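Xylose isomerase-like TIM barrel: structure tokens wanted.
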Amino acid sequence: MPTRRTFLAASAAAAFASSKLAADESSAAKANQICVFTKPFNSLTFDELATQTANIGFNGIEAPIRPGGHIEPEAVPDKLPQLVAALEKQNQKLTVLTSNINDPSDPLSEAVLRTAAKLGIRYYRMQYFKYDESKSITKQIDEWRMKMKDLAALNKQLGITAVYQNHAGRNYFGAPIWDLHRGLDGIDPTQVGVAYDIRHATVEAGMSWPIGFHLIRPHIQVVYVKDFTWGEARPTNVPLGDGRVDSKFFRMLARTDFRGPVSLHEEYIDHRKPELVPEHWEAIRKDLKTLKSWL
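Answer:
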């Protein structure tokens, strides 16, 4: 017959197991969703795209909805609901909408965003700003800040978040990170935030990329992942884990409160050739395995 002591011990063990399960479920709920940038797959139907991303193990896609992408901006009101419906049938989401939007006064841009917001799409990637080296750098940043403030006001009204990707290159606003930090000063990150690209950050900052990461961290809404090596004149994209991107970044990221999506970009196979679609899927499958091991 059980004694009071064994009963209390059993009750304590059960309570511990229950609390551990709740903690595990809470951690799982907070896990970063992983999506894939689907630029190489314009030749596929929406159903084919959704089925394949689900089969590989993604939670959703980052879809180019811009000139030359899956859907032309003018066709968004008719076709974007079709893409979202195809994804939902496979328990997938359109996690990030990649756009050519950075002007809130453009009526077509507003129509795209209104449609996206009604469909429950939370994030869209902005188009880049590029420096004119013959003009004041700081004045250009200040001008772009005002434009992003106007865009933030529209996003707040619609309930959607713009993300600006830091992109490596001589004249890209956001490449050095500090300028992006300055440009976003005073703007709510849930209205205009950052898609932090660790590949581009490493290209631009070399060994000092952690400083830029910590600087821009409060603005980060989405994380982009891809890899590169240095060629003779420029960086070359390579499979994840074969290049210069440091897996320690993900341990650093895990120590923050970041709970946004992570988007995998495979850009080392020519995306313009439909006959290479099977190679893209196989490469993405391998990159996803590496990414999950790092996360």
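The CA atoms of residues 248 and 294 lie 8 Å apart. The chain has a mean pLDDT of 92.

Cheers.
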